[in-house]
């Protein structure tokens, strides 16, 4: 498409929004990432006359999202955002790892322009797909006065990158922002903010083209042992995020193995597997705690291993 001004760049990465199914009534047994972003945009009434540019950056089911794709997406976001005529970027993405990509971009992009991730819970071939409306809502957010930061838009609700998480495997309104609540709502093309936009918090490092630190997540649970951690250490893991129970507690056999891992040079971070609320810090903690969800704490630890932080990471 021709770039006009001001414009919004729509970057396709796949997901259910680009998915297709043999039957219009099948909203589960489809194949994600089948339809290109140009065709998706061309099928949405009223978009033809809008100043949009589009680019297919990836075409994948977001369960397969990886560091190489993040690197390409980051570079394309930076390139589009650097153009004066580009008002903001919309990224179409699968719902399954959307919160991880959003957090990664939040910590890597240095921009005052909005970067809006959107998605769908039903494939494009569905009898009633949710993707087209989500794209329209995302475009409304990307062009809204005052909008900034990396946000996710789904089912008319706008979430910030730090708070957002997928909370439902099927419902159209699949995301939540925990105790903080949404940033804004989109109603018939109008954006209604309910709290302040969250600016990006870039880590000031270059994302490498390869050789990314290996960080894994281990969960505490009834009967948790240390075997998995010991296997990871033997396999060369560089960092482990433990998703603890409750206020980040870890069963003694797992804790023993984590202490051994730390002595072997593995970086450790403790989070909670609870879906809401940060860990409450206390004296005498054995492992460093993060207020982020386990998947976002993993991204933060990857970035720490690339470049140790000058200040502690932001909480959720
Ligand atoms: C995906 O995450 O790519 C598939 C699932 C979805 O988009 O809802």
Structure description:
The structure is a single chain. This protein is 24% helix and 22% strand. The protein has 316 residues and is of the alpha/beta class. Strands 2-1-3-4-5-6-9-10 form an 8-stranded mixed β-sheet, with helices on both faces. The model has no long low-confidence stretch (mean pLDDT 95). Succinic acid binds at residues 15-16, 32, 61-63, 94-96, 119, 121.
In brief, what are we looking at here?
With 316 residues, the chain is an alpha/beta fold.
Averaged pLDDT: 95
Along the chain, the helix and strand elements come as EHEHEHEHEEEEEEEHEHEH
Q: How much of the residues is beta strand, in percent?
A: 15-25%
Biggest sheet statistics: 8 strands, mixed
Uncertain stretches: none
- What share of residues is helical? 10-25%
User: What is the global morphology?
Assistant: globular
Task: Provide the spatial order of strands within the biggest beta sheet.
Answer: 2-1-3-4-5-6-9-10
Key traits:
316 residues; alpha/beta; eight-stranded mixed beta sheet; three-stranded parallel beta sheet; binds succinic acid
Topology:
Blueprint: E1 7-14, H1 37-42, E2 52-60, H2 67-81, E3 86-92, H3 98-108, E4 114-118, H4 131-142, E5 149-154, E6 157-160, E7 165-166, E8 175-176, E9 184-187, E10 190-193, E11 215-219, H5 227-234, E12 239-244, H6 252-263, E13 267-272, H7 294-306
Parallel strand pairs: 1-2, 1-3, 3-4, 4-5, 11-12, 12-13
Antiparallel strand pairs: 5-6, 6-9, 7-8, 9-10
This protein binds succinic acid.
């Amino acid at each position: 498409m021709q770039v006009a001004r001001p414009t919004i760049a729509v970057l396709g990465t796949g997901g259910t929004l680009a998915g297709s199914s043999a039957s219009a009534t099948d909203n589960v047994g489809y194949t994600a990432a089948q339809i290109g972003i140009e065709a998706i945009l061309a099928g949405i009434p009223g978009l033809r006359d809008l100043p949009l540019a589009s680019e297919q950056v990836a075409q994948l089911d977001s369960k397969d999202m990886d560091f190489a794709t993040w690197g390409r997406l980051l570079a394309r976001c930076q390139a589009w955002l650097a153009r004066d005529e580009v008002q903001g970027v919309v990224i179409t993405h699968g719902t399954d790892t959307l919160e991880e990509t959003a957090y990664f971009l939040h910590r890597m992009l240095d921009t005052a322009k909005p970067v809006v991730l959107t998605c769908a819970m039903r494939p494009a071939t569905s009898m009633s797909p949710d993707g087209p409306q989500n794209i329209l809502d995302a475009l409304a957010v990307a062009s809204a006065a005052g909008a900034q930061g990396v946000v996710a838009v789904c089912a008319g609700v706008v979430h910030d990158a730090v708070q957002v998480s997928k909370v439902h495997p099927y419902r159209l309104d699949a995301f939540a922002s925990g105790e903080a609540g949404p940033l804004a709502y989109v109603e018939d093309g109008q954006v209604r903010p309910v709290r302040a936009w969250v600016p990006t918090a870039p880590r000031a490092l270059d994302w490498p083209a390869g050789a990314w630190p290996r960080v894994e997540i281990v969960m505490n649970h009834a009967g948790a042992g240390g075997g998995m951690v010991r296997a990871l250490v033997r396999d060369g893991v560089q960092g482990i995020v433990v998703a603890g129970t409750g206020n980040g507690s870890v069963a003694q056999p797992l804790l023993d193995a984590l202490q051994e891992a730390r002595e072997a040079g593995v970086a450790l971070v403790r989070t909670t597997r609870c879906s809401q609320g940060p860990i409450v810090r206390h004296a005498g903690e054995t492992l460093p705690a993060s207020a982020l969800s386990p998947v976002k704490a993993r991204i933060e630890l990857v970035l720490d291993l690339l470049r140790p932080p000058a200040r502690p990471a932001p909480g959720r």
